[in-house]
Amino acid sequence: MIVLETKRMLLREMDMSDVENLQGIFADSEAMRYYPKTKNVAETEDWIRWNMSSYRVFRFGLWLALLKENGAFAGQCGLVMQRVDDLPEVEIGYLFLRKFWGQGLATEAATACRDYGVNQLGYTRLISLIDPHNRASKKVAEKIGMAFEKETFMFNKHICVYAFHATASEHPTGPS
Fold it and tell me: In what order do the strands lie in the sheet with 87-96?
């Protein structure tokens, strides 16, 4: 199911047929540099099931990013429910195939997810959780209007929390 459309991409719900595409990221040690480890096929299948559950429970999750021009898989981007310092938070997450790095696709997709979270789901605050050494991810967060808020400890390491706060005009109604 297509969830969002950007200038260059369609974002759709992932399903079990997406294992091979996601393995293009998850088996790449450079793409997974700031994550605990790469993922094998079974772990990727678990990842897809986890996202499918999130779609049912929260009405969002990480979505596949497909290029409009040819339908090629480019990466994943979406909204993820997290617990940060014992508080529920909605994170904008993004991770793309290395061959698409530096083309603005992560920023484009993350902007669409930010707008969806605010305008469709009614959130006034969205975050991104970023490894302190991941400068490219920090740049994406800043380009979509996020600012460094704090550092916390989760996933067995220090993590930077970047936050976006919607203004009253951007957030007509809904949960915060």
Answer: 2-5, 9-13, 62-67, 73-84, 87-96, 125-130, 157-165, 147-154
